[in-house]
Design goal:
- This protein has 185 residues and is mainly beta.
- It is built from one helix and twelve strands; from the N terminus they run H-E-E-E-E-E-E-E-E-E-E-E-E.
- The strands form three sheets. Strands 3, 4, 5, 6, 7 and 8 form a six-stranded antiparallel β-sheet that branches. A four-stranded antiparallel β-sheet has the order 9-10-11-12, with no helix packed on it. The chain has a two-stranded antiparallel sheet with strand order 1-2.
- Strand 9 and strand 10 form a beta hairpin.
């Protein structure tokens, strides 16, 4: 091989080496010592399965519906509310998703719940849903570090359920042992 041919090959080798370095730098590395590549995307709740009270609810495109009792015209419906937030709520370095669920068991109540989809090493897991209230209004969901904050409008104990909720409050939760637990401000 002549000196001219060698000189032409060097830029090609240099370009290949730089490309390999860039690809290696962009590859997810997982958590230290885990040996598992982590997902960089937060879990999608649209088709997740949640535990609400004693009911297991599998959403399909953000909604689930079943008969209240076999042969009944009354339906139990669960829908995914618009309020959600993503971030690392369990401290493992992977993004999780916190959602609000609207659960209508067939009576006059419309119950709001909060749940988290945890982006665990072995796959996505959901926390049991925690009730926020009946016929309330959820005005926002946000994170303060690993604390989940749900802003709601509710009623006083003396107000009838027929009145619109107007008392603002913030409910705080943290992940403890794979479950949502109430947290102090």
């Amino acid at each position: 091989m002549s000196d001219i041919e060698r000189a032409r090959r060097i830029p090609k080798i240099l370009v290949l080496a730089v490309a390999l370095i860039v690809v290696a730098a962009c590859t997810p590395t997982g958590t230290a010592g885990s040996g598992v590549t982590s997902s960089v995307l937060p879990p999608d709740p649209s088709n997740a399965t949640f535990k609400i009270e004693r009911d297991t609810v599998a959403l399909v495109n953000g909604r689930a519906e079943r008969e209240a009792t076999p042969g009944s015209a009354t339906k139990v419906t669960t829908t995914l509310a618009d309020q959600r937030v993503s971030g690392d709520v369990d401290g493992d370095g992977r993004p999780d998703t916190v959602v609000v669920l609207i659960y209508q068991p067939g009576g006059s109540g419309t119950f709001f719940y909060v749940a988290a989809l945890l982006n665990a090493i072995g796959g996505v897991t959901t926390t049991p849903a925690v009730v926020l209230g009946d016929r309330i209004k959820v005005t926002g969901v946000k994170l303060d570090g690993r604390t989940i904050m749900v802003d709601v409008l509710d009623r006083t104990a003396a107000q009838p359920m027929t009145e619109s909720p107007s008392i603002a409050s913030t409910k705080r939760f943290v992940i403890d042992g794979g479950a949502l637990v109430a947290s102090k401000p």
